[in-house]
Write the structure tokens for this entry.
Amino acid sequence: QGITVLWPDRAVDVRRVDALGAAARDAIAEVARETDTTPREGLVVVVYASMDDFRRATCAPSWSGGLFDGGLHLDAATGRGPRLVRVARHEATHAQLRTLRAPIPSWLNEGLAQAMEGPPSPASLDAWRRLTERRYWIPFASLEGELVVIDDPEAAALAYHQSLAMFLFLRDRGGPGAVRAAFARVEDGQPEDLLTALVEGADGDALLAFLGERLAAAR
């Protein structure tokens, strides 16, 4: 069904390879529906024998567990571990969004990819608690550029967790069709200030209030 997986002999059980391919295929279809885009026709997934091999081949930052750069890359330990489906769905989201061929604000790109993984991770919930307790947020405009160039793992993690928060805020407070509207603006060459354009009253305080509601519901 258009998914080609390459992996080292005996490094990953074939059933896990099947799960990897299915997770990528399903994520591509779901993202296409949510963003009103045409599903990509093919995807190559490369599994490396070790994390060192993965990083040497991709030049991915030390904190990255997977990468999409035209192909989907991950290491065999991830292929054998409990995060396989989450990582596959995350990177397959980037693969589908690449079909837009237009610059996508990183918070929107990474926020959707994290949302496609499943429920927010404990790490995201912990980061959201810190943000709300300290009354702190990263300026929205700072999350429009590339996050993968951030070298510091802690700073990168915070940027990713806030990106997820911003995407969920858009989907929750923007009303029906907000996500499609965001990607339509991207295709029309209007990627700046999407959140404030599509959600009335969107600012850091409103985002923290939203996170407070999410955290209260998660208790």
